[in-house]
Design a protein that fits this description.
alpha+beta; 249 residues; 9 helices; Alpha-Beta Plaits; 32% helix
Length: 249
Amino acid sequence: MILYPNAKINIGLNVLNKREDGYHELSSVFYPVSELYDILEIIISDDFSFSSSGFSIPGNSNICTRAFDLLKADYDVGNVKIHLHKMIPIGAGLGGGSADGAFILKAMNELFELNLTNNQLEKYALKLGADCPFFIENTPKYVTGIGEQMTAIDLDLSDYDIKFIFPELHISTTEAYGSIIPKKQKINLLDLISKPIINWKAEVRNDFEFSAFKKHPELLKMKENLYADGAIYASMTGSGSVIYGVLIK
């Protein structure tokens, strides 16, 4: 089985407050983008193995293995061989790792005929990471909480081009959240997104941009360049550092 886990962009990202458990309450719109994707191959095998190519995956563990282990612990499933060709930049705010983990869950569900519902898969995905549940249905969502509360929205950008700028810069989660001051928004992001895209430039914000642009002014320049090139809306995605622009085709 060959799968193509896709990236997502954040259209607006507001940090509302910090919870007692250390997690932050957010509001954002997650939008799947088919232009950027990884390639996953998964086949039933006598022994479990994981290999990768493309962008190097840091650390000693990976989300694909953890996704397999989650279902292996609860269901009588066989072993698999997984190969991941990593093409979505890591630590860029595009959710590539989250997509990989979610797609492994979906693949296992199909390969071993587990008949898990999307709701059940989303609960497993949340154990992998806050962004992972989104990639189970992989459709535009208004996301709140720490990422686990999702509401389907009617948003279609297929009539537009999405252009990406990939800085040679990694912004760690610790760095990103270290400068954030949570605050409630006067107008709900869902209401702002429902307005014409031409209005987004003045109203839809990614709270992580302020500190990121202050520390890395080249990111602000990239965003300004997208507007100069005709973007209707431009933003950093996630906590950075990739910048995207929405342009008329």
